Structure formats: structure tokens, C-alpha cells
């Protein structure tokens, strides 16, 4: 579904609100960098710190991409941590059994794809998506512990090429995240399938009336979310050369925070993956800045929670206010829609 862009045809108040919605995150990032450049001096504004932030953001952004696509489709997939744990454990166990690296990774990714499809099929039966994905999180967490025998699977040195290794000074996860975001952005912005996926998220009934196979695109949204979660789980295992069977619930909150900061409405229908990526970088920058400023690590979780609520609040305020202004103006801007 198309988005409104600031232009001269709209009243200045609406253009201002849209500018805040579309560019506010970039302004926040610049402000954070300036603050920590002084507060975290002399360690923050250095190349090693920048690379470290990018590396941390890369892994988180893989999860965020999956969560964002799910939300754009109109569903919030909370089974992401469980899917990641299962994919990492399956890949680790297969590598221990001597399977080729490529085949083991493929099996891990297929597990994520399968989880996404199962989630979608159950939801399409009429169950609440939140309940279904929470239940799936529990199931996958237990399954991961059973497969791993309740122990971490360590020594996965076969995966270092996509975890700890650097290429031209940049860690491998950064390249993986960039490729993933490029593929998904091209799909969402420049393909018929991506447009229809967003249309289903915006209004399933309207999409159905114009002949779009709504159920198929809902399955696709869940499948992409599951696939991204599996990839994130495998990259995480590669980064620490260990597959951890316990699900890390914090990953989904970081992802949701990035999505909220990016202005993606949790009712679906629109969103920008590049802004989601910037949202993850903002969260990683704040965590690194607080650490270098010698602020206790617990404050990072507090800030993440505040950012999540703040991002949702700002998004709701700009959307509602813009809608009211458009209705009040009664000009052609109202016909453009707000979503």
C-alpha cells in the first residue's frame, strides 16, 4: 500500500508530521551519536566501536526483519526466539553428525520455514495469532532442549565463516544482514507479491475483494518470519560457535523496539525495512554508548523498553493526528489516505 510522502500538495502541519514519522529516527540516531561522542569519550567515536555496533546490530536486524515482515502482514510472530533456538540446535546436531556444512544450514533454515507455515495454517483456522505463536514458542523451546539433551552444543567451528570471520575488516554477520535486507526490500517495494503482501496486512477484506489470495500471502508472511528467525539463530550459533537450546526472549523485544522506532504500525499494511535496520542500529548504539559511559548494563534494558513504548506512542500520535488533519482539511490530501 502506498505511503504519503511530504509534498507541496499537503498542508504544512501534515507535512511536518510525516517528516517526523519518516525522518525522526535518523534525527534521533544523529542526536544519540553526538551525545555519546562526548559522554563515552574517548572510546565511543572510534572505528572499532563502530564495527562492534554494526556487528551487534547485524544479528539483531536479522530477527527484526522477520518480525517486521510479519507485522506488515498484520501478525506479530512471538515464536521467533524458539524458532531461532531450534534452527541453531538442529544445525549444530547435524554438524556433529558429520553432515556437510551447507546441508546442515539448509536443514536449519527449512525448520524455520516449516515453523512459519505451521503457525500460519493454525492461525488460518481462526486461532488468535498471539496465542498460537506464544504456544509455538513454548513447544519449540522444549523441542530444542530435547534435541540438544539440555546442553549447549559447542565447538561449531565449521560455522565461523558466517560468524566470527571478517571480510575487508567487516564481520560476516553484517554482510548477511545487508543481503537479507536488500532482498526483502526489493521484494516488498518492487514486486507484485510484496505489494500484495502489504495490501493483505493493510486490509485483508479489501484485498480479498480485489481477488488477492489472502490466505496464501498470510502463509508467506509467516514463512518469511520463520525463515529470518532460523537464519538469525544459525548466525548467532556461528558467532559464539555454540548452539544454545534455551530461547532468548530478549531478541524479540529488541526486534519489536526497532520496528516501533521505524514507524511500522503494528496493525500492518506499510513499513520500511531500511528504517527497521536503522532502528536496530539505534538500539545497538545506545547499548554500546551506555556501556562505554560505564552505565550499569541493566539500564540498557530499561532504555529499550522506554524506546519501545515511545516509538509506539509517536507512531500512534502521528497517524491519528494526520488522519484528523486530513479529514478536517477536506482537500485532496484526504483522498491519498494515511496508510
Automatic annotation (TrEMBL):
The chain crosses the membrane at residues 25-45, 51-71, 101-123, 130-148, 168-188, 219-240, 246-264, 276-293, 299-317. InterPro entries: ABC_transp_permease (IPR001851). It comes from the Bacteria. It is a multi-pass membrane protein. It is found in: Cell membrane. Its main location: membrane. One of its GO terms (cellular component) is plasma membrane. Keywords: Cell membrane, Membrane, Transmembrane, Transmembrane helix. One of its GO terms (molecular function) is transmembrane transporter activity. This is ABC transporter permease. It comes from Arthrobacter gengyunqii.
